[in-house]
Design brief:
The protein is built from 5 helices and no strands. The chain has 138 residues and is an all-alpha fold. The protein has one domain.
């Protein structure tokens, strides 16, 4: 396995590679990264539609791969690709749900304020307009 230069810009940082102690596993992760990082990014971006969050999830995927590097026998096989896709999809969906549950909590709090009849009518109208705008941005 040849050594490739690893860039930290939008990719796995050297720090991440340095957490792997043996050369064989480090080389394996490096090959996995070069083979699959664009594919992983595409999957994540299609789920989250946010390039910064996608980059974070890609990093998390490769951290998970470090934790499970011994489960990967061959780089270029369907089993490895499926394993990576499952990790990618699960991390992406978890983040998506987390983000949306936070939005729902905010909407519920706003709805509580709107339902408060002690609030002056002009403030209620403004609150309802804000809630309507937030609901349409989902």
């Amino acid at each position: 396995m040849s050594k490739k230069k690893v860039v930290s810009k939008r990719g796995i940082s050297m720090l991440l590679f340095s957490t792997i102690e043996d050369d064989y596993s480090r080389d394996k992760l490096e090959e996995l990264y070069y083979k699959y990082h664009k594919y992983v990014y595409k999957i994540v971006y299609n789920i989250l539609n946010d390039s910064y969050l996608a980059q974070d999830v890609v990093q998390s995927v490769f951290i998970k791969l470090i934790e499970n590097i011994d489960k990967i026998d061959r780089i270029e096989c369907n089993k490895t690709k499926a394993f990576i896709v499952i990790i990618t999809r699960n991390l992406s969906i978890n983040l998506y749900r987390k983000r949306n549950s936070h939005k729902n909590m905010v909407l519920e709090n706003i709805e509580d304020v709107i339902c408060d009849t002690s609030q002056p009518i002009d403030e209620r109208i403004i609150s309802e307009e804000i809630l309507d705008r937030i609901s349409h941005n989902r």
